[in-house]
Write a structure and sequence with these properties.
This protein is mainly α and 160 residues long. It folds into 3 domains: 73 residues, no CATH class; 39 residues; 46 residues. The chain has 9 helices and no strands. Helix 1 packs antiparallel against helix 2, helix 4 crosses helix 5 and helix 8 packs across helix 9. It is flat. The model has no long low-confidence stretch (mean pLDDT 87).
């Protein structure tokens, strides 16, 4: 039954569903779910509703991320053609560019106008769990300081 569903899904995808964005994404996602179901049958375990929900959610996330990435990597001529065919994509690109500009500008302004200690304190306030999980050299790089400077700052703060 799973094999028949998978073959049918592939035929539908080949002959049209890949041309409609939402059908394309769901086709890819259902392919992942069918593989999970086939795997459950293969090892003779009961198929949990959570397996289906989690597989579908993850597969949708992956498929949408892949399609978004493909759009972002388009060359200028292809992107211009897309914008002519779909004006809503122009808004998508503009919002994406604005968000990236604001984030970059904020980060540069913060690195120029605050001390390393202030950036560190803001980091641990903003990301308390991440601070415990990420290696110190990565945190130092994110803050724009050396690992030795981060170690010094941490030592000074612990003595206060």
């Amino acid at each position: 039954m799973t094999v028949i569903a998978f073959i049918l899904l592939q035929i539908l995808y080949t002959f049209g569903s890949k041309e409609v964005v939402i059908l394309d994404v769901f086709s890819v996602a259902f392919g992942f779910v069918l593989r999970a179901v086939a795997g459950a049958f293969a090892i003779d375990v009961m198929i949990s509703p959570w397996l289906l929900v989690c597989s579908l959610t993850l597969a949708l996330f992956l498929a949408l991320g892949k399609r978004r990435h493909e759009v972002l990597l388009l060359e200028k001529s292809a992107r211009d053609k897309l914008l002519d065919a779909c004006p809503k994509m122009e808004r998508f690109f503009r919002l994406l560019l604005e968000a990236n500009y604001i984030a970059t500008h904020s980060r540069v302004t913060e690195s120029l106008s605050t001390s390393a200690e202030e950036r560190y304190l803001k980091f641990i306030k903003t990301y308390p769990k991440l601070f415990e999980q990420v290696p110190q050299n990565h945190i130092a790089s994110y803050l724009g300081i050396t690992p030795q400077s981060l170690s010094r700052i941490r030592k000074e703060l612990s003595q206060k």
